[in-house]
Amino acid sequence: MNTSTIHTDLCIIGAGPVGLFAVFEAGLLKMRCHLIDALPQIGGQLSEIYPQKPIYDIPGYPEIKAQDLVDNLIEQARPFNPTFTLGERVDLLDRQEDGSFILTTSDKTQVHAKVIIIAGGLGCFEPRKPVLTNLELFEGKGIHYMVKNPETFRDKKVVIAGGGDSALDWTIYLANIAEKVTLVHRNETFRGAPDSASKVFDLAQEGKIDLILSANLKEASGNDRLEKVILEDKDNQEMILDADYLIPLFGLSPKLGPIADWGLSIDKNAIEVDTRDYSTGVERIYAIGDINTYPGKLKLILCGFHEAAIMMHSAFKYVYPDQKLSFKYTTVNGVNAF
Amino acid sequence: MELIKFTVEDQQGARQEVEAPTDMGLSLMEILKASEYPILATCGGMALCATCHVEILEGQAGLGDATDVELDQLENLPEYFPTSRLACQIRIGDQLEGAVIKLRGEDVV
Fold it and tell me: Do A176 and A69 share a domain, yes or no?
């Protein structure tokens, strides 16, 4: 364990409404929380996707804007001083001899926790993969789903597939870097920003890129690495392109991500839990909110709140194995900050 | 309760008639899930994941145009057809009577 490891009682994966309320429920039981979220800000879907949309089914609020609910939840959790790692995805889970865990993120941040709570909502948004013969064979060997470092493509032959903003933007950007850029799109027109679309048509006119419309990806081929991309046009005619790289850009889709490999029981992209305490089949790992499933499950924020309260009473035994838990009301005991 | 009937073709090509109430404000995605078709509908109906992708093989005319949010998702899909829609964005109503709907969303593993 390196010295920069963050130590906490509970590590909550997902800083959406349910993860935030879990901090409050944990705090009432004197358990400290660290939250990790792949998004760069707190609030999950509510802040990322629909901050200004009203929500009508939060008890006690006839109507509340999503971002206002997040702000209130942050305020409610504040006495318990949660800490955050944002913009990083949890990649690795290592069980320690004493039963606790060390989590490692995509940026190599390490968190040591006695209990893990997965409150990951829809999961993380990952690139959508096209249906293409030999796709898996050349992943990382010429097929990339995102552009991490544009220099990778300097003086190379690059095929970009897709019609959205990112396909247009990267075509324009890489036109000056790569030896040759070919943009393949299945329609005649682009729905991306009109400015970018006309720029792409201009580049094609000037001969700086190749633009192939009304065509679909069919097959990737090569030996150790990608060498050719085979397309099919609307008349089922094949076209073969020499390519060092293929970048399919078909948007993002929510997936469980690395969590799917943690030995948890998964049904239809959701984690199966025991409704007595929302525990997963793996000791010391709980799942609450939209990411879990059980008979009768409703993907509602208020159900996630309920699950958070119940599961904290179960997790208490791992943080304070020698103490007996007594149930207390906030109206009687107040909120004791730490 | 008002009921309509339409036909659903699953990923394997098997067709079956499905009945749905028009007065409960349900979406086609919700009816498909309730009928235990293997669709993920991960985002719960917010046009975010496109896992409820369907093709309207018959009865497209009465449905009206897809919104921009829906088209953004659909046109980004690796496989997309002129008849493609997101089931979560279609309300169950009389216009679906007799429609034929083919499931296109990724198979549930």
Answer: no
Q: ∠A126-A128-A131 over CA atoms, to 5°?
A: 150
The closest of A212, A207, A251, A245 to A229, measured between CA atoms, is A245
Average pLDDT along chain A: 94
Locate the chain B residue with the closest alpha carbon to A291.
B42
ipTM above 0.95, yes or no: no
Query: Do A131 and B78 lie within an 8 Å CB cutoff?
Result: yes
Query: If you count them, how many residues does chain B have?
Result: 109
Contact B48 A49 (CB under 8 A): yes
* Out of B44, B76, B108, closest to residue A164 by CB: B76
Quick one: pLDDT at residue B109? 46
Nearest to B43 among A130, A164, A254 (CB): A254
The reported pLDDT for the residue numbered A251 is 82
| B89 in a structural domain | yes
Question: Which residues of A are less than 8 Å from B37 in CB distance?
Answer: none
Q: Given pLDDT bands bounded at 50, 70 and 90, which one contains residue A1?
A: very low
Q: How many domains does chain A have?
A: 2
**What pTM, to 2 d.p., does this model score?**
0.78
Pairing of strands A215-222, A226-233: antiparallel
Cβ of A254 within 8 Å of Cβ of B71? The answer is no
